[in-house]
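Predict structure. Chain length: 175.
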Amino acid sequence: MKRRTMLVLPLILAACDIDPVTDYMGGFGDPVRGAALFAPRNLGDTSRWQGDPAGAAMAAAQLEFLARSFRENPIYSVPSNPATSQTLQSAVAEMRAALGIAPGARNADVEILLRRASVALREGSQAQALAALTGPNFTVPPQEVLRRLGDLPRLPIVSAAAGMAANEISPGRRS
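Prediction complete.
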């Protein structure tokens, strides 16, 4: 039994490396749980994405997803500490300022666009990535958003929010 777990765990972790929201536990797990559990790794130090704009775009999309989920999903918004949702909203503001994303853009819209950009970059299509980073949800030209994604600094509020989201999902925390 222990050996089987040891063989499956790397496969699960490999899937989560791409997008814990959609690939958590092979798609069978709760996407909010997946994003929250991997938030400290993906968002705890955003400078880890230096030179990897696709990874940074996916991490930023996951932040948008977490903020929306902890605010709107009753499974998480009701029992969670309100400070978690507030800190996630502050983290979104910090990330958006760093990337050149409009402060008033809807989380779901930004999340979709960042995911599209990430997928396009992973597939080698900079043109499609730039198209995804174009429009009223962005305050700077798409080339600048892409440059910023590849040169993301450590964002302290994002780091704090990542830890808080993971803490909310930790075993024993939820009933």
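Summary: The chain has one domain: 2-169.
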